[in-house]
Design a protein that fits this description.
The strands form two sheets. Strands 2, 3, 4, 5, 6, 7, 8, 10, 11, 12, 13, 14, 15 and 16 form a 14-stranded antiparallel beta sheet that branches. This protein has a two-stranded antiparallel sheet with strand order 1-9. The chain has helices spanning 5-30, 46-53, 79-89, 103-128, 152-155, 185-192, 204-229, 278-288, 299-324, 340-351, 382-391, 396-406, and strands at residues 2-4, 34-45, 57-67, 71-78, 132-134, 138-143, 160-170, 176-183, 201-203, 234-244, 256-265, 270-277, 329-330, 334-339, 357-366, 373-380. It has 408 residues and is an alpha+beta fold.
Length: 408
């Protein structure tokens, strides 16, 4: 089956607009000005969904949807954000001795959750010209993926699932809210299906293979880190997101990174950014430079990071090239030291001259002890990605699995 990129873009916009309606409802009911930070459509393996949620403690509501759009949705606040909202929405409501919200607080969260999710779903119903039914909200206080409707991942028949994710942030307060929607895979895939003669279509089965190929490239890069530093590493999260090109810079955390950026050419073409936050960069420098430096992030430290970025780039690109059975040329990695948004903005600007959306492939390399965190962003040229997928034989997924097993 082939996916229509324009349709995928339309549904991304619907999710964005729905999240904006939800944020407006939160602002109206609480007086806390809220905006939508980023909305994306992500294709992830089930295990990576679990990694993304981690063990974060959430408070929120679960709502099932049916009719024109079938699936599961959840509105989730981290616990501190939920407490701030309850203080405004339901004065006098408190958390009980067992560290759970009392009945008044639960009722307030359920009410605002129902209203916010109603705003999120309405735009879908209008676009699909049909009713979208919602189940009554179910209040939840849970950790990680347990905030999702019970059994949502278990019921997914496919190894990969679509996840719509919107993050909302308050302007003047530390309040974050998240909307997650997991549409029923088969139904949603049919909504995205393109006609056979559609030039912009992407083959779905090959897209999932490419997602796994990206994880494999990240694992090879992580292996190179371990070889250079002696520090055990692992790929924590690897996912393929579909976002408007102008939102690509917003996918990074709001902090300063030190790392490398390079352009890869041919099929596929695009850009690769390997970014360490500053504490992680210091860890890398301490492990690779055989002397104590007065300035860990001075010239010698930056040179060490550039060399590490070069080695990780080779590992990542080799993982892709092995599956595509081709060589991938790339420019020498360029050292970057700036805010994440400032690093990715020029990339988005260059690609934005020829495409409206980006398939953003991001992976996170971590250590068991939390010594450092490295984020890898692969942002391919849309047309070159399509050409690569068209040339990729699905049968090569067997080779992909064989390559994966060779890593361990």
């Amino acid at each position: 089956m082939r996916v229509d990129i324009q349709s995928l873009g339309t549904y991304n916009r619907l999710a964005q607009e729905g999240a904006e309606h939800a944020a407006a409802s939160l602002t109206e009911m609480t007086g806390i000005e809220t905006y939508v930070d980023v909305t994306n459509v992500t294709l992830m393996s089930k295990r990576d969904v679990e990694d993304v949620f981690g063990g974060t403690a959430f408070v929120g509501v679960q709502i099932g949807v049916g009719g024109g759009l079938s699936g599961e949705t959840a509105l989730a606040f981290d616990r501190e954000s939920a407490a701030s909202i309850v203080d405004v929405l339901v004065p006098g409501a408190t958390a009980g001795d067992d560290d759970e919200f009392d009945d008044m607080a639960r009722s307030g969260i359920s009410e605002i959750g129902n209203i916010m999710m109603g705003g999120f779903v309405d735009g879908w119903a209008d676009y699909l010209s049909t009713n979208v039914d919602m189940t009554p909200p179910t209040y939840v206080e849970r950790d990680g993926t347990d905030v999702l409707p019970e059994g949502a991942l278990a019921r997914a028949k496919e190894e990969h699932v679509f996840v719509f994710e919107s993050q909302m942030t308050a302007v003047d307060e530390e309040i974050d809210a998240y909307i997650y929607m997991l549409p029923e895979y088969g139904t949603f895939a049919e909504m995205l299906e393109a006609s056979d003669d559609h030039d912009d279509a992407i083959p779905m089965d090959k897209l999932t293979v490419f997602d796994e190929m990206t994880r494999q490239g990240a694992e090879r890069a992580a292996e190179n880190v371990s070889s250079m530093t002696g520090i055990e590493t692992d790929v924590d999260v690897s996912r393929l997101s579909f976002v408007p090109i102008e939102d690509v810079p917003n996918t990074t955390r709001d902090e300063v990174y030190l790392g490398t950026v390079m352009e890869f050419k041919g099929t596929p073409g695009g850009y690769l950014a390997i970014l360490f936050d500053e504490p992680s960069a210091r860890t890398i420098v301490d492990a690779t430079v055989p002397m104590e430096l007065d300035e860990p992030l001075g010239d010698m430290g930056e040179s060490a990071i550039q060399e590490m970025g070069n080695i990780m780039t080779s590992g990542f690109i080799d993982g892709w090239a092995n599956v595509l059975q081709t060589s991938i040329d790339h420019t020498p990695p360029e050292l970057v030291h700036d805010l994440g948004t400032a690093i990715l903005s020029p990339i988005a600007g260059r690609l934005g001259q020829s495409q409206e959306y980006a398939f953003l492939m991001d992976s996170t390399v971590v250590t068991p002890e939390g010594e450092f965190n490295c984020e890898i962003y692969a942002i391919p040229d849309e047309q070159k990605l399509k050409e690569a997928l068209d040339a990729l034989l699905v049968e090569r997924s067997d080779q992909l699995e064989a390559n994966r097993e060779s890593l361990f």
